[in-house]
Structures are given as structure tokens and as C-alpha cells.
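Note to self: the last two entries modelled the partners one at a time, which told us nothing about the interface. This time every component goes in together.
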Amino acid sequence: MSAERVAVVGIGQTKYAAVRGDVSLPGLLREAAYRALDDAHMTMDDIDAIVVGKAPDFFEGVMMPEPYLADALGAVGKPLFRVHTAGSVGGSTAIVAASHVESGVHERVLTIGWQQQSVSEAMWALSFPIPFQQQLVAGAGGYFAPFIREYIRRSGAPDDIGILVALKDRLNALKNPYAHLHEPEISYDSIKESFMLWEPIRYSETCPSSDGAFAMVLAGEKAAEASAAASGVNPAWIRGTAMRSEPATASGRDQISPKAGQDCAADVYAQAGITDPVADIDMVEMYVPFSWYEPMWLENLGFAPEGEGWKMTESGRTRRDGDLPVNCSGGVLSTNPIGASGMIRFGEAAMQVRGQAGDHQIDGARTALGHAYGGAAQFFAMWVVSSEKP
Amino acid sequence: MAESDMEDRSTSTMPGGLWTQPSVSVPDIGDGEVIQRITEPASLHYSYTPGRAPTRFLRGLAEGKLLGGRAEGHDAVYPGSRGMDPVAARPTVESVEVGPDATVTAFCIVHIGFGEKAPPTPFVSALILPDGAAASMYGTVLGIPYEEVRIGMRVRPVWVPEEELGLTSENITHWEPTGEPDVPAEQLKGHM
Amino acid sequence: MRDVAIVSVAQTDHRRAVPELNEVEMIQPVIQTVLEQIDAKISDIGFTCSGSSDYLAGQAFSFVMTLDAVGAWPPIVESHVEMDGAWALYEAWLKIQSGHADTALVYGYSKASPGDLPRVLSRQLDPYYYGPLWPDSVAMAGLQARAMLDKGMITEAEMAEIAHRSRTSAESNPHAQVKGSPSVDQLLAEDYLSNPLRKHDCAPVTDGGCAVVIAAGDRAREWADNPAWIRGIDHRVDSHNFGARDITRAPSAALAAEKAGVSDGQVDVAELCAPFTHQERILRNELGLGDDVEVNPSGGALAANPIMGAGLIRLGEVANRIMAGDAGRGVAHATSGHLLQQNLVAVLEGSS
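The predicted structure of the combined assembly is written out below.
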């Protein structure tokens, strides 16, 4: 059977910051939602269903907050759906929203991902101590840093590749007015001299903790074309969506290049008709919370052969003037409200193919990949969007 | 769990009943300013139970043994308290002693510790594969300058004094080098 | 729309507390059983989706460990909702409707025993206005019951009759937690727990879970002689401003029932997720179920209420009756939030 074609026709996001004390939780969500609706030339009344996603509820101290948010989101009398798949949740949520339309059940769906990390103590909300369970005294970065070290060992990468990624993403963020971190003084040396947290990860190679929300309006073919006619902006057609999960620990599992990521990429490329990812994809929004994950994911996603992802980074091919620009928005390294971070990747990819990305627009971007991952690098969500209808 | 807690309860049994929360505090700020933050204290009391596999693992630790578990009809031994073979999707009903000698499969050098139990920084946080196990567990490596720790390095657990052994992962304070030759790193792939 | 059916159902034997098992140990046998019943492996499943809650577990990312019970190696297509498993089933149904999968495994579970459930549930309320008052879930439901009594929609004796009928029905449900009931007169002689609610008006606190397999078309017919076809499924939400709406109504339940097509045919059986006796009356009204419709032959949520699984169990109980040939067409309902704020309704049917 053929599924209904789906497109992104509205995009809105908040200004991201360490603390958005000027808005309540509903206010934060409405800031993003209204911008997305305005962009789609729609109002809340036009929306058939609302699909929301965020990471653990302990961040905001509200259990399963969607019934509470029903009024603020214009959801009263409508379906309201909540996704939680750890760090990949923003991407998964967008995919679940797309399912609502692809299935033919709904025509226009509003989807929102968010996190207000300032409300509680973020490290506590992520992993407060549980009796009987071993506590990781190394913190969140200490969980992933060993895998990065193993990647460096296997690939023989020079030890400054992470610095190059961080420099690129933070400079890209200067062209994105919504980004949390704007550091005009950032330099190779300032990153190199920043405090070492979890060797080989430095402070400036780590994502911040942000408040913020990202929203999109997804629509079926007819509604998308009507919206595009009203807004004058080309829809971003969804060419493929994929999710994969694997256990946190399993005999045979390789945490450096997880099979779930490889399978997920192969699936989404097959749907989108992509045979040569570097040639066929114009830009990537990739989930890179620690700098070194750029070369690691370049290999995992099939953009570079095993052990050679760092060469793409080092040679500048992932810069905005390279042949595969990665994270022109500044990426997770510049903005990280966890529950929104995946959706920002998906949405920024859509902004690029719609030609809406302003100062960080890649000229002529027609096909883009949005990527998110979560848990112990075990949950993956991806989509490919294109300016051309499938 | 206390017997009284096992009874059917449909309303709050927290000490002091329902109305024990501190009052909400609104910071005293001048007229016309936007309130940026109110503090709303909340506390919930949970009585965790570890489950079968963690109980077996913790009892092993209390006897100074490092246990893993194996699912019926499957080979892989998973160290620690997971309780499931995640590939077979079956409980690891058979307890198997692993290690105590082990190999470092990956590590990082921690310059910012988390929680009260973190050792003085810098220290090495490592994934450690006990002999006979199919997957690694997290541990701290001490007893060697941190810059000399290697992937493939052989280590053994250091336990608290016998009289202090209890039902806790903290029985193993850290891991230290055995001095044996390193295991080639290529052999460790798939066992992190 | 593709024809999609429930073909296999399994659940735990529900208990007040299962202290000897953690969540993954508790749900694993259910997942194993739901697949073994149809001689399926995880590799036969196109999509897996679960429902659970971090606040109930008292742990962030609590669902991650539960994935170990599924066998996600090689990697699987999988997702999770912070909602009742009934909504996980809805996501799986959409996935099958959009052609991305033909089969799905769905599960929902919780251990409510580690926390103080009514108090934990109070954290689901508006954090600015309701939350700081710490109204627990029983007190909230008491306001609703009082409003109904004042309007003459129900009497305390009728509420006790619902409790009596549900728990008497539960005597034939091997999984039920609370089976059997004193007489209505004896129930009414009890003290109030949270006036006007007595203990019998409230669902028990439960540890447990449920798993279901759904499949499309021929695959469903391969796996079940008489699949329980999902003829309609819809969910809606009402306002959280409880003080500004009529809390004796659940318009979202009526709307979901209309969209699911409840009134398009005869209803042989209905399983309604009503954790409080008076809520069964609201749901009967909103779903338009006559007095002749058999409601909650399993005992319903009043007999066992593993939150995050209780709604999925309602779908499973109706499906079991259809698959067994005891009912031709049935209605299942799930709810989320306080005072029936959010509702899902499904219509299941055997082959005609």
C-alpha cells in the first residue's frame, strides 16, 4: 500500500537559553507553536492532532504533563499524544507525528519537542541515585568518553579533531539567532585551553544545558500544497523516516558504531532512494552532544568508510562551505534542551530544504538528513526531507 | 517493604497525612517586575526493591564474589545486576562467578566527578570486562598514574575489608593493575 | 484503512506489590508469553511500542532497562510513550496503517508499589495552581463523585453496586487482584475514605502489566483463528481547568466513541477503564452504552489497576472475548490524567 505523502509546512522555535525565566512552561511551548502555525498560515483550529515529546519528566517536575498542557496547546477535543524515547525523543516525536498523517488518519498535525532544563537540577533529573544500582561517579560525559577514546584508538585520529568540530559548530551558531551559545571570541586555542572534563572531552567540546522548544506543522499532500500556496514557502517533503533500538549492553554490541544506527540509516536511505549518501544528501543536522561524535556518526551513517570519518572533518568537508555541511545551525553543541534537540535536528533539515534558514542557509540545499540518538547510543531516529515531492 | 506497606492503600500514607508540604515561596520583588522563578518544594517517598537478579548479585558481593548471570540454554554471561540476557530476552537464572581478574575495555580520565562517592580527580572511569563475562561493567581504576592506564590493561578488584562487606556495589572500592601483559584491544570489540 | 486485529494477549497476575521482581523481571514473562502463544519470535514483529512512566518507577529513563525483555538484537524498530499502553497500541496501529509494518508488539506496565500512588499522581496536575495544594487522586475523584451525587446522576448505593458487580465478576478472572465483594449493604456500612468515596469505590494500587500483538490482514488470520479486528480507534483530551468545566461529563470520551464508531452496531461487551465506581456511570453515558451492555466482565480497573497497563488490558480483555467467540463486537476504553480528562475508545469485532 502507498502511504499518504507528508510535508513539513510550518516551523517555529524559541530563543534558547540556559534559563528562559520570562515564560512559563505553557508559554514556552506556545512561543514555538504559534511561530510554526504562523509559518504554515494556519491557526490552532486548523490542527487535527498534537504530538509532543520530551525526555524525563523530572526535569520540569510535572508527571506526564500533556493533560495539563491540553488547554495551552489548543488540544481540547483533539488527540494529544506523548512520546518519550530518551535523547532521540525529538526525532521520534516528529516521526510519530508523520505517522499520524501518513496513515491517512489525520491531515494537519502540530508536533512539539521541549525541555526546560533550568527548572530542576539537570544532572539530578537525568540520573538521581537509585538504591541497589551502581552510581556512575563519572557523570554523563563519563559514560560516553570511553567510547570516544576507543574510537580514537581504532581510527588513529589526531587528538584535535574534536576541537575542530566544536569550533565549526560554535562558529555556525553565530549565524543562528535562536542558538543558545553565541561565543564570538571562540577559537581553536580557546577550546584547546578549556577545562578538561572527561579526557578526551573538554568543556568547550560539550553541549550546554538549555531551555527551549521546537514545533512543526506536518500536513498531507493536499493540505501541504494549500499551505505552501498561502505562505509562499516550499514544503519540506518527508522522503523517509526510520527508527531503530538496541540494548544498552549486549554481547557483540559495538558502542563505537552501533548497528542500530547503521540499520536505521540504511532503512531511511532506501526509502528516500539515496544510494550515495555524500552525493545525494546536501546537508546533515546530526546529533552531536560531544564533539567527537561527528566523525563517529559520519562513519556510522555511511558518509565515510570505517576509521575515516575524522578525515572528512579535518579536511573541512563538513564546514558550511564543504561538500557535506554538518550542523549549520550550531548543532547540539550550541543548543541542548534535551527533549527538543532531536526535533531541532529534524526541523533544521526541513528549514534548509525550504530555504528558510536565513544566515545559516546552505544555498541550493534540496535534500537533507535529520538525525537523533539517545540512551546509551542505542536509540536512533532519522528522516530525510527534500524540496521535491516523492 | 514493611508489612503495613503491603496493605491495599488508596489514599496517602505519608507521615503527617496529605498536608505536609512546605508552603510555596514567592520572592519579594518590586511592582512591575516579571516574576522569573518561584520555588515549589516537592517530595515523594519511594521504597525501591532490587528484584531477583540484583539481589543475587548483591548477595554475591557481600560474600566477596563477583557474579554474573546466564540465561537457560545461552552462553553469554552478563556481569552485575541486569537480570536479563538482552539478546535472548530471557532472565539470567543461572548465577556464574566471573573474574575477579578483568580487562579494561575502554576508559576516560575524569576531571569532574559526580556525587559524593567520586574519588579525588583526576581519576580513571573504565569499562571493565571480568574474565568469563560477555560484557563490561563500570568501575574506577586506581593504583597507577592515570596517564598510564591502557585499553586492554589487566586489572583486579580491590574490596573493602571483609568486616565491611555489605549488600552494595561499593564493596569493590576500585580496580588496580595485576601487572599481567595487556590483552590485544581487537579481542575486546563487542564486549564493552 | 488496512484491517488490523489483536491476535494475542498476555498479562501478569496482578498484585498489590511484586517486591521480589524489578520492572524488567516482571514484564519479561508477559512478553515471552504473548509471542509464544502465536508461535512468533521478535524477528516476526515489525514494530514494538511500550508505555510506562518514570514518575511511577521513581527513576529517569526507566523504560530503557525493560527493552532487555524484548530481545532487541539484532536492532528492532521500537518506540515508547509516556502514556498507557493503549496509546502505544494506537501508535502501532498508525505504523501499520501507514504501511511501515504489518505486525506489532505492544506492552504497558508499572510498579506503583515503590511510591505513594495517589500522591505521585498529584504531580500530574498543573504545577502552578493545583500542584502546590497536593490534592491526591482520590480527593480529586471525590470532588467528581460529589458533583454527580448533587446532580442526582448516581447514588452511593449505585456506586456500591458497581463495586460489588465488578469484584464479583473478577472471581472468574485469573489475573484479578481484588476478587469477590461483601454485599452492597455491608459496603455502604463502611466509613468514608475521602467523602463521598469509600474504599470500595477506588481501584486498588497494583503492580503489573500487559502485552498484546496486533497484525494486519492475512498475517492476523495466520496467527489467530478469530482475530479481534480493530474497527475504530480514537482518543481525545478535555480541558485541565477542572473548575471551569462540568466534571460530571467527559466530552472527550463521547467524541472518541463517536469517531471510533461505537454506535454503528450492537455492543456485546464493554471494558471501561474506570478507576472509581462513579466514573463507570460517566463513561456509560458518554459512550452511549445501554443498560443491556455487559460492562467489565473482567472486573475492570476496580479489580486490578496497573497504571500504564490498565487501558491496554481493557483492549486485551475485549479481544480475548471476541477471539474466544463469546462476543461478536465490543468496546474498549482507556483513560489518562485526573477525572477522565483524556480518553481512548476502540471498537473490536470478530469476523462477520
